[in-house]
Amino acid sequence: MKRKVAIVTGGGSGLGFAIAEKFVQQGIDTIIAGRNEQKLNEAKNKLGELCHTQPCDVTDLKSLPQFIQQIVDKFGQIDILVNNAGINMKKEFTDVTDEDFQQVIMTNVSSVFTLSREVVKQMLKQENGCIINISSMAAQYGIPKVIAYSASKTAIDGMTRAMAVELSPKGIRVNAIAPGFIYSDMTAKALDSDPERKAKVFGRTPMGIMGQAADIGEAAYFLASDSAKYITGVILPVDGGNSVGF
């Protein structure tokens, strides 16, 4: 059987790297895309021959059709798209400029739409495919000082459902993952420097621990696999119960 082909945006580090790592381990040809070529090459060195790099600035919308066409020309198919690339911006509500807001929307929403549209054109020819968007707890409940990010991730949830309803009859499943508080050196440092926020995070997370990036990789692989062949339009929290915690 021919190997599946996946694209993971923002695949050079963090959650994107963890998703790419899981895909590669499962024998999927995985293209990691991002702006930082050095970071992409370092990730490829760790992930091995099934990992392929393709530099891409997702905010350059006009370049995305050609970006996807290059992958189709090289691999002949696209089975999985993970829209993971994104940015956050922490500012007081009244300090957020129009430019700030638009930058987050462009990166987190507009690029997801454009990339998905171009990939779907190929998936329709194949009559199958799987798209996974990355949502956030910021779409599950209100978080202060991240107004643009909250708006963008809430839009992702709506897009996921609308895409699923329109595309699933044509063989393309669309789901999203909403990560909770996932461990990284950066998040650990941020929480350790803010005891009140740290207490709040763990106080409303029933499992009482932070997740690992690999947990998101496992969820993404499940949603992309045949084990999830009857699942579409779902926003899957991977959060230790945070979204339902009190």
TrEMBL record:
It comes from the Bacteria. The keyword Oxidoreductase applies. Coiled coil: none annotated. Keywords: Oxidoreductase. Residues 4-180 form the Ketoreductase domain. Signal peptide: none annotated. InterPro entries: KR_dom, NAD(P)-bd_dom_sf, Sc_DH/Rdtase_CS, SDR_fam. PROSITE patterns: ADH_SHORT (PS00061). NCBIfam families: PRK07231.1, PRK12826.1-2. PANTHER family: OXIDOREDUCTASE, SHORT-CHAIN DEHYDROGENASE/REDUCTASE FAMILY (AFU_ORTHOLOGUE AFUA_5G02870), SHORT-CHAIN DEHYDROGENASE_REDUCTASE FAMILY PROTEIN. Belongs to the short-chain dehydrogenases/reductases (SDR) family. This is SDR family oxidoreductase. It comes from Terrimonas ginsenosidimutans.
